[in-house]
Design a protein that fits this description.
- The protein is an alpha+beta fold and about 60 residues long.
- It has one helix and four strands; from the N terminus they run E-E-E-E-H.
- The longest helix is centred in the last third of the chain and has 12 residues.
- The chain is flat, with a radius of gyration of 12 Å.
Amino acid sequence: MAELTGAQWRKSIRSGDNGGNCVEVADNLPGLVAVRDSKDPAGPGLTFSPAAWTSFVRSTKSPH
């Protein structure tokens, strides 16, 4: 994941204390948003365009 060099990873403040079962997001890189499993920070990650990530986050906040 060389393109993620310099990523500043963060957990949601809503993650709480759930034993480390969280995802981390890095949105400080130009042109992409990265997501990884907090339990495996050296493992694989997913990348999204900022527009796709914004759409996903909005859809999770919308009532279904």
